[in-house]
Amino acid sequence: METNQSLKKKMAARHITMIALGGAIGAGLFKGSSSAIVAAGPSVLIAYFIGGIVLYFVMKSLEKLVLSSKNPHGLSGLVQPYLGNHTADFTDWVYWSMWMINIIVEAVAAASFLQLWFANIPTWVFVLIIALLTSLINLFSVALFAETEYWLAFIKISVVILLIIFGVYLVAKQVFNNDLITTFSGMTNHGGFAPHGLKGVINSLLIVIYSYGGSELIAITVSETQDPKRAIPKAIRGVIGRIISFYIIPMFLLLVIYNWQTLAVSSISPFVMVFNKMHIPFAGDIVNLIIILALFSSINSGIYASSRLLFSV
C-alpha cells in the first residue's frame, strides 16, 4: 500500500465542514423523502432519528481513528493499523465499488431531471456532459474540487434553511387560524402515527440510511487537508447535530403542514409543495435545479473519492 506523499494539502477546515454537511444533504432529502414517508408514514421521524444515531456513531468513530492515527492518509490508512493490509485494501475496493454504482445511477438520475427542461435531448448527452464537467473539476486541482463542493453545499443548506423558515411560518399560521391540537392532530388522524407499524419504520430505514450517507467522505480527504488532526475532528463535532436537524426538522414540519398521505401520493417534491404554498414563483424549477446540483455534487464527490481510493491501493 503506497502512501499519499505526493498529494497536496489544499483543503482548509471550512472546506471539510461543508463537504461533511453537503455530503449528507442531497437528492435523498429533496426528493427521496417522499419514498420514506410512503413506507412509514409519520413514524418516518423515528427512522430519521435512528439514522441520526447511526451517523453519530460512524462519525465519532471516524474522529477517533483520525486522532489516534500517527500518519493518517485516507480510508485504508485509518483501517490498516488495526485490521491489517488485506482488510484495508478490501475496505478501499468495497467503498470504490459503491461509488462506481452511485456515480452511474446519479448521472442517469440527473439527466432525467434535466430532461424535464430539455425533453428532446437524449439522456446519454447529459450524462456525457456531467461526466466531462466533474472529471475536469477533479483533474484541474483539489482546490477547485473543494471550492466547488463548498458552494454547492452552501446552496443546498440555504434551501433547507429556507424550507424550515417557511415551514415554521406555515405551522404558526395554522395554529393561529385553528388551534394547537387541531394543527398537530394531522400526524395521527390518517391511520395513526405508525400506519404500517414497525415494519414500515424498518422498511423506511433503507432509504433514510442511504440519505444520510456521504459525510464519511471526509475520511478520504485526510491526505489533502491542512492539519487534518485538528480540522477533521472539528468538522465532525460541528456537523453531526446540524445534519440530523436538517433532516428531522423539515420532515416534522412537512408532516404537520400536510397529512402524510398527501405527501406520499404527490408526484412532486415536498419542497416544491411548501414553496408553492408560499407562492414562490417557479418553485418546481427551483427545486429541480437544486436536485440536479445535489446529484452533480454527489457525482463530483464520487469521482474524487474513487480516484483517491485507487491512488492509495
UniProtKB/TrEMBL annotation:
GO terms for cellular component: membrane. Keywords: Amino-acid transport, Membrane, Transmembrane, Transmembrane helix, Transport. Transmembrane segments: none annotated. It is a multi-pass membrane protein. Coiled coil: none annotated. InterPro entries: AA-permease/SLC12A_dom. It holds the Pfam family AA_permease. It is found in: Membrane. GO terms for biological process: amino acid transport; transmembrane transport. This is Amino acid/polyamine/organocation transporter APC superfamily. It comes from Lactococcus lactis subsp. cremoris (Streptococcus cremoris).
